[in-house]
## 1
Amino acid sequence: MATGDTEERSDAVVLALDPGALRAVVAGSCGLGDESWRARVARLRTAPPFLVSRLWLDRPVRGDRPGFLGTSGYGPLDNVSVLNRWEGEAARWAARTGGSVLELHAYALSGGVGRETRQKELLAELHRVYPETRRARVVDARHEWRADCPLFPVGGYGDRPAVTTPTPGLVVAGDAVRTGLPVALMERAATSGFLAANALLGSWGLRGHPLWTVPEEGRGALLRWAARAAHDV
Ligand SMILES: Cc1cc2nc3c(=O)[nH]c(=O)nc-3n(C[C@H](O)[C@H](O)[C@H](O)COP(=O)(O)OP(=O)(O)OC[C@H]3O[C@@H](n4cnc5c(N)ncnc54)[C@H](O)[C@@H]3O)c2cc1C
């Protein structure tokens, strides 16, 4: 493995990267995989940017507000978390100051609208969702703008790279990786990490870590038959 002007030798490599970084590393490492695998990696897509705004307010939200609320019909706002209900540092800050710590998420934002404008839009939508926040002073704010989530086109499952690659000792892990199991997001990232470790351990004749998942078909023959019959109707 060569990075810049240094070279390191290793028995195995796990590429656990977001899709953009995986594309860049593979594109910049001509010896990895074969042509078809490299083309698959090059076809991985990155979802449009997301915004996470964390706000420290000078007053609490109403006592019956849930820790997490998914929203629809509030512009770009996708959800609101009252972090001080379930996160230690936020809870301590809120207890000390009498304020609250909220997090606003907006996913897959379309282009053409400036960051400042989007941040203001989220705050305005928060005021609609939780009107008691209209009079609150924002003591501090942090805004995370990123674009590193995988985008999954309809019908694209089969084209995604799996954990093992054509290069012995090279495995990939992450949410963009095809696992063959009914998992997604963090669960897929973690599951593919276990599968990658198991693939390497297996290649050295060592036992890996058993992975459990939900049943992928009915447990009894009769139920499987009934599910197939219902599907065929
Ligand atoms: C706002 C938001 C909320 C979410 N909420 C949830 C949720 O509630 N539940 C859930 O299950 N999932 C959630 N997700 C999704 C979850 O975060 C991802 O599915 C998960 O982080 C994917 O893990 P990953 O390892 O594939 O990629 P990442 O977490 O993106 O990790 C890739 C890592 O590679 C590093 N990297 C990049 N380039 C290089 C390089 N050249 N060299 C070394 N390192 C590099 C990056 O810094 C990064 O740390 C959320 C995502 C977002 C954005």
## 2
Amino acid sequence: MTKRTLLAVLAHPDDESFGPGGTFARYAAEGVDVHIAIATDGAAGSVAEGYEDAREKLAEVRAKELETAVSILGGTLHTLSYRDSGYIGDPANEHPDAFVQADEQEAIGRVVKLIRELRPQVIVTHDETGGYFHPDHIQCWKITVPAFHAAGDPKQYPEIGPAPYQPQRLYFTAFPNTWVKVLIFLFRLRGQDPTKFGRNKDIDMTRVGVARKKLHAFINYRDYWDVKREASAAHASQGGGGALGWIPVSIQKRLLARDTYIRAHPPTPEGFREKDLFNGIGK
Ligand SMILES: [Zn+2]
């Protein structure tokens, strides 16, 4: 049996837990080698109440939180070591070390290196909208898609890594807008503005999510709900993922204990559905 290996390339320390953490926890528990590469240091993030003192050394604080979270999920942590960019329009985007300012070819090379070293069958990254249009998320997509194809091409980046290696699957994290519509409804019911979601009030929920028919993989992680929660809680400076705390846990589990993905490669026929990112691999 081939060793199953998954590599996720995500933007910020907390994206691995607040995002597809349930998927990672489940696969790690099922014996998959789960590698999580985080592109930035999280230095441009805001801080939760009570963490104001962490402002100055935020990257350091978040590095520790990330280490704890990834170990709770059962994964191995890698970092691409870029500086966090801010959300659209944030002056942090102008910083020369900001991820969005990175030389694209060089950045792709960093992902190629990881792919050639770790030899994962499955790669996971953000989709082209970054979920909610965060420039760092979009940048991850921009570099990981070409890296996925370059890793197996001996003509590209010949100086990097032990040998060319072509992963089999490329998935983008994405969530259905049906789920988003339910949330928007609940927000309006509570008198909250769905265009100002999140601790930074900069996420317009009415613009996020994709049509269900565009989603291909549905990963149920109900059995790993608590692991994901625990990993999210490790990101205390970022609020620990408690934004939906007012929704009863039983309803959260029913609605949310499933990560959804667009399968970008290989291309899929219309109506394609799968429940396992390793469907047919390593068995
Ligand atoms: Zn993020």
